[in-house]
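FORM 12-B: Structure-to-Sequence Request
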């Protein structure tokens, strides 16, 4: 009996030792592989490089937009397209290295936006909007405003001519212009920052005149009715052009504007701050005929 027990113990110890040896190998092996990959990565052997000719746009980019290759294999660039609140469309210019900003000469672009199923494109002017640090006469950003009718749609975008260096290149891509306002709740802090701070045409006096609050809070009890067919003389929402509600009023640039719903106030104030030249006098937002 005693002998059998000893044998059992010995066998058990051997198995244990083997397991320990195996474990050590696994640990050292993993460590070794890790170190080897690090060395390879730092020497650039495993680092992915951008291909010279790309046949499809990248999924994401510096500003969270869509990165699109421009040019040919000799002259290779990128643009990043971004749509933000207010329907603000921005185009940033990058070099062959998609993370490196490249300045181009100041120019006005005409972008063609065609919504899926639409017969013809809508033309939108994109003006140069130099970023901080861009040289005189140069820009690395263009900006324009998408009309409401294009929002939330799949868009074919074409800029027939963009001058990089001395050459003109066409830029073409497909873009999903997400619905941002109206039907999507925005975060309360964002709304606060937007409507309770001044900027562009939206002044400190405006913030006070509006009661230092957000439109969503102020008009909590207003039930928005989107009447898409305003009659002649009706006030229309400056954002959607639907019939404006007399209850949803907001002061911007010292003037009273009327909107179809509280989220549209945020859209309009975004424009007042970021693209003030897009804001017209309240009298412009009346249905004609
Ligand atoms: Zn609205």
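FORM 12-B RESPONSE
SEQUENCE OUT:
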């Amino acid at each position: 009996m005693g002998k059998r027990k000893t044998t059992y113990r010995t066998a058990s110890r051997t198995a244990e030792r083997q397991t320990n040896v195996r474990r050590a190998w696994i640990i050292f092996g993993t460590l070794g592989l890790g170190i080897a990959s690090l060395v390879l990565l730092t020497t650039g052997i495993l680092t992915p490089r951008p291909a010279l000719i790309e046949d499809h746009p990248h999924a994401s980019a510096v500003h969270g937009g869509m990165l699109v290759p421009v040019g040919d294999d000799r002259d290779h660039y990128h643009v990043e397209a971004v749509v933000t609140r207010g329907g603000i469309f921005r185009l940033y210019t990058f070099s062959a290295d998609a993370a490196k900003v490249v300045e181009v000469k100041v120019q006005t672009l005409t972008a063609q936006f065609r919504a899926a199923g639409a017969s013809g494109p809508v033309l939108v002017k994109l003006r140069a909007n130099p970023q901080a640090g861009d040289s005189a006469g140069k820009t690395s950003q263009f900006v324009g405003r998408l009309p409401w009718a294009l929002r939330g749609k799949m868009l074919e975008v074409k800029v027939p001519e963009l001058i990089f260096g001395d050459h003109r290149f066409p830029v073409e891509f497909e873009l999903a212009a997400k619905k941002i306002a109206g039907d999507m709740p925005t975060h309360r802090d964002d709304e606060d920052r937007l409507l309770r701070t001044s900027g562009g045409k939206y002044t400190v006096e405006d913030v006070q005149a509006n009661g230092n609050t957000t439109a969503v809070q102020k008009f909590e009890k207003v039930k928005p009715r989107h009447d898409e067919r305003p009659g002649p003389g009706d006030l229309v929402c400056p954002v959607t052009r639907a019939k404006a509600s007399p209850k949803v009023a907001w002061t911007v640039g010292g003037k009273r504007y009327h909107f179809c719903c509280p989220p549209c106030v945020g859209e309009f104030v975004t424009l007042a701050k970021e693209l003030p030249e897009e804001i017209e006098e309240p009298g412009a937002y009346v249905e004609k005929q």
